[in-house]
Structures are given as C-alpha cells and as structure tokens.
Amino acid sequence: MADSELKNVKTENAVWRIIKRIFDIQEVNTILPVLVLIIIAIIFNPMFLNPGNLVVIGQRMSMWGLIAIGEGLIILTGNFDISVGAMVAFDCVFFAVAAAKWHLPMAVAILLAILLPVTLSTISGLIVVKLKINSFLATIAMLFICRGMSKMMTNARPVPIAPAQGSELFLKFGQATPLKLSWTFFIFIALIIISQVVLKKTAYGRKLYATGDNNNVARLAGISPDNVKLSTFIISGFLVGLASILLIGKEAVANANFGTGWELQAIAAVAIGGISLIGGAGSMIGVLIGVIMMQIMANILILLQINLNMQSVVLGVIMILATILDLKRRNRILGKID
C-alpha cells in the first residue's frame, strides 16, 4: 500500500474514532431524539417555529423543570419522590392562605412556603434512610397527605392572594416577562448550570454518584450514604418551595390541583435525559434535554390538535422506553467492565 493510501486510511480511522467518541457521550445520544422531534414538529406544523410558541415552551417547561432538578438528584442516589407534584399544590394553598387569610407579611409567607416542603421532604427522606422503607411507598404516603391537605384547606376552591400585604410587588415579579420569557425560565437555566457544576466538579457531586452506584463501596470510601440521600430530599424540597412560589406568583391564585402529574413528567424527563433509574449515572445537562424533549412532545400534540388525554398515553410509553434504554445502557457499561 502506498504511503498516501496508508495516510488516508489512518486519517479515516482517526475521524471514525472521533465520531465514535462523540456518540459515546451520553448527552449527544440524548439530544438526537430532540432534533428529530423538532424536525417532525416543523414538518407537521410550521407554527412550531413561531417565536410565541417557542416562548410558551420555555415558560411551561421551566416551572416543572425545577422539580425535575430535585428529582434528578434523588434518582442519582437510587431513590424516587413521587409526592413532589402534590407537595406543590399543598405549598401553593398554604402560601395563599397564609398571605390572604392569615394576613401574614409576604416575606413571612414566602419563608414559610420554603420551609414547608423542605420539612415534608426531610420527613420523607428520614423515613427512607432511617426506617429503610422503600422510597416509592414513603412518598406515595406523602402524596396522599399533601393532596388531601390542599383540598381540605381550600374546600376544592381556588384561593386568590390579591388582598395580601405586598401582593402587588410579588405578582408583578411573578408575571413579568423579561425577554418575553419569565424569571422562572432564567432561574431554571441558572440552577441547571449550578447543579451541573456541583455534580461534575465538587466532592458532593462525587458522593452522589458513589452513593447511587454502590452504598457499600461508598461507605468504605468514608461516605455516609444515608446523609447523602437525605440531603437530596432536602434540596428537592427547597426546589418544590421555589417552584410553588413562582407558580402562584404567575397565577395569582392557588389551586388544589396544581402540580398534578408533575412528578411523572419529572421522572420521565430525568430518565430520558440519561440519569440511571437505579442511580449512579447521569448529568443535569441530560435532565435539561429531557425536560425540553417532554415539553416539545406536549407542544406537538397541542399543535396537531390531538386530545390532551393522549399526553398521558405518550408519557407512559416514553417511561417504558426510557426504562428499557436505561437498562440496556447499564448492561452495556457492566459488559465493558467485565
């Protein structure tokens, strides 16, 4: 073989190796379906690219996207929290009652609205790590408690916060549209970036991955898996409180049905984004991609005027596929190790 031909072969092999490395990156494989979805959406309805429609996608995904960040951290440690959607409803109702009916200053109501979900999530976390109860069972119980409390406090009726002291400034912030988006969107993106840095660049991030990968190995490394798991529930509770405050600031009213299905959307987005459902692998960039993908699919159904109930069917199919892909990905990794 001539030198020139040999050089070409080496160049081609080097290119293929680079391409292979690129596609070995988890987030690259995750973003490809998003691009496919966008192309499909444009083909079936060019209105998808309308700036107003893109703004709607950004605004809607950012609210429950905050929940997905916390859910992603919990799932990284091998647990789940399916009470977060109901917790949003309870927290919004509590906030509205505290501000409008108890006439507490807005700053106090906001503080209490942060502390409530943090406390509830801490209780769930303690039940999981101290009593060794499965996180599904523990958080199912919390789901029923929160949804029931929100309905009891409202008698299934909306609770406005307009009469509350300081509500005008609060609502002005919640309903503001910087760059035609919302403050929630920018907060969501900022927290995604911060979370990604924490996961990849800090000791806490390494502890999360180690705990989710193998509790026993984590203990041998001097890590307390129970403390790490509990911390993720606490962080998730804080994000629930933040999402609740931003939601009620936008809507100006609390409703006992707020947050319905958010926990499933969050788990699906996390799974689609590549965080392993058995813990120990994934990234926040993947969660962002998963959230975008979920919201695009919902938007496509709306643009195609498909029955909104179909979204539940699509969500179920997505979760099954995401679980299968996660298991295949985990088996492939274990195969390489063996």
Task: Explain how this protein is built.
By secondary structure, the chain is mainly α. The protein has one domain (28-332): ABC transporter involved in vitamin B12 uptake, BtuC. The chain is 77% helix and 1% strand. It contains 14 helices and two strands; from the N terminus they run ααααααβαααααβααα. The chain has helices at 3-24, 26-44, 51-76, 84-101, 106-130, 135-154, 167-174, 183-201, 203-213, 215-220, 225-251, 262-272, 284-303, 310-337; strands spanning 159-160, 253-254. It has a two-stranded antiparallel ribbon. Helix 4 runs antiparallel to helix 5 (106-130), helix 4 packs across helix 11 (225-251) and helix 7 (167-174) crosses helix 11 (225-251). The two termini are 37 Å apart. The model has no long low-confidence stretch (mean pLDDT 82).
Q: Quick recap of the structure?
A:
The protein has 14 helices and two strands, in the order ααααααβαααααβααα. It is an all-alpha fold and 338 residues long. Helix 8 packs across helix 9 (203-213).
The total strand number stands at: 2
The chain-level mean pLDDT equals 82
Q: Distance N terminus to C terminus?
A: 37 Å
What is the H/E string? Answer: HHHHHHEHHHHHEHHH
Helical content stands at over 70%
Largest sheet: spatial strand order: 1-2
Task: Give the DSSP E fraction (strand runs of 2 or more residues).
Answer: under 5%
CATH architecture annotation name: Orthogonal Bundle
Highest-level CATH class:
Mainly Alpha
CATH topology: ABC transporter involved in vitamin B12 uptake, BtuC
Query: How many separate structural domains?
Result: 1
Major sheet: 2 strands, antiparallel
Instruction: Using the CA coordinates, give the radius of gyration.
Output: 22 Å
Counted by DSSP, the helix tally is 14
Taking pLDDT < 50 over at least 5 consecutive residues as the criterion, the unreliable ranges are none
Structural class of the secondary elements?
mainly alpha
Q: Report the principal-axis shape.
A: globular
